[in-house]
Design brief:
By secondary structure, this protein is α+β, with helices and mostly antiparallel strands. It is built from 8 helices and 19 strands.
Length: 309
Amino acid sequence: MGRRRKGDAVSGWICLDKPIDLGSTQAVGRVRRAFNAQKAGHAGTLDPLATGILPIALGEATKTVPFLMDADKAYRFTVAWGVETASFDREGAVTGRSDIRPKPSAIADALTAFIGEISQIPPDYSAVKVDGARAYDLAREGVALDLRPRQVVIHAARLMETPDADHAVIEIECGKGTYVRALVRDLASRLQTRAHVAALRRTRVGAFTEAQAIGLESLEQMCHGPNALEVMLPVETALDDIPELAVTTEDAFRLTQGRSIVLLPRQVETLKAKLIASRVVFARHEGRLIALCEMRAGRLNPTRVFHLT
């Protein structure tokens, strides 16, 4: 007999508004303890100096984390002109200065060059792996890095305001793997100046938005009362762009046993019309998430089965 997992079998997502100066792993630990959850994980690291949306999965929701890792994100950040740092944020050592302060019109014009699919070299102080080690660990040890450029997508980039000549507030919507600090580095280079990120906030991850977010202290206080589960979002929140299929009681049972089910021709055609980049479908029975499946040759084959009550 296997050991009984410690904690409660709670399952769902928490849309956490992560505070500044707290690491993502630390945030997950505090949320897990608040709910006394058996399992917990997060979808997309947020730097300690950044605030904003950090989706945290509890229990069965951890099975959907990979689908949120690829989700589009949105950021709002403040650029500080004239000072460049080693990490391109306010924590790093100063590595360069410039007297040039770009005008708002020049900033807005320069941003257009970064919209679409672009090539971006990650900052040395990043989580990119180099021969099995994290780039930021090697950078802190003084190792000279030559990171390869990566293709990323920026869907939109807007200059929101310029509080003064030294600062600009920008918002972007982007695909996975985009580094705001690298964008600021390259934007400054295009404007022939130096800059770093003075403040960074993530405002959206997939279907998780600021409107749903809850602060960590508020969450911990709620967990001492009877309404703790009210802030938990359904497991399928991370599957907002994956088509669903309602299945019968018999088919639901087969899927929970790890067996495939045969689809009706009309079901196949309906799902094909909804599928975009993959064959993944999630099955639901009487409002309950049953399984994530792959559709092949007119059948649904379960790849992840959920045990939700």
